[in-house]
Design a protein that fits this description.
This is Lipoprotein. By secondary structure, the protein is of the alpha+beta class. The protein has two domains: 48 residues; 165 residues, no CATH class. 25% of the residues lie in helices and 32% in strands. The N terminus is likely disordered.
């Protein structure tokens, strides 16, 4: 009986030591690691390290675009001017060209709306202006009742502290603007950049320009190319 008691005591002592060692391991476990439950049921301290996430970039690669004859954006660079097309986020800084799109970004602007006659029909023209900006908006309705909206040539937006639909605002640093949309291994492109010109489509008739003064975005200009 005495030997049996000693044997049972030895077994219990072994179990206690085992539990103590397990608790010690748990206490020494690095809880600072980012852990998620193991979806595949593999036991690694009942947890597994989270797999590193692949970083996906939506930035426009200027170097690649310059090498392509017919790329997605028809990118060009010459004398400080970066040109591209088919990129709505920059082509339409207000999110669209309709009056209601633009008005919400023009607080305290003077609104002057009047009619103009084109082909014996009256169409709306609106001028939104303040001391730093002047935008002339024009809507044209075709015979099939399809309407087109334009920001007319020589319109400009220079009002600071107004974050536009695409997240840009006058006074933003050139580096912040560039890195929001573009990537390039050629430092001279960024260093010499003075203007970004964006056309909404490959026809290149309408354009939006982002003009920099030094390292600061100081004007957004709208225009069109007269193609005969």
């Amino acid at each position: 009986m005495k030997l049996k008691a000693i044997f049972i005591s030895s077994v219990l002592l072994g179990l206690l030591l085992s539990c103590s060692n397990n608790n010690s391991k748990e206490k020494n476990y690095d809880e600072s690691r980012e852990l998620v439950p193991n979806p595949e049921g593999l036991k690694i301290d009942s947890f597994m390290l989270k797999e590193p996430q692949e970083i996906k970039s939506d930035l426009i690669n200027i170097d690649k675009g310059l090498k392509e004859k017919f790329g997605d954006y028809f990118i060009g660079y010459n004398n400080g001017i970066l040109s591209l097309c088919c990129f709505d986020d920059l082509a339409y800084p207000f999110g669209g060209n309709e009056k209601h799109d633009i008005q919400k970004y023009c607080p305290n602007f003077t609104d002057t709306t009047y009619k103009i006659e084109i082909k014996d029909e009256l169409h709306d023209r609106t001028k939104l202006s303040n001391s730093t900006s002047e935008l002339t908006l024009f809507s044209y309705t075709h015979d099939d009742n399809y309407s087109e909206y334009y920001i007319e040539d020589s319109s400009y937006f220079n009002t600071p502290k107004v974050k536009l639909e695409n997240g840009l605002q006058i006074g933003m640093g050139k580096k912040e603007v560039f890195e929001k949309y573009f990537t390039s291994s050629n430092d001279s492109i960024f260093n010499t950049l003075e203007l970004i010109a964006v056309c909404p489509d490959e026809r290149g008739e309408l354009y939006t320009q982002y003009r920099f003064a030094g390292d600061t975005l100081n004007s957004i200009f709208f225009g069109y190319l007269k193609i005969n």
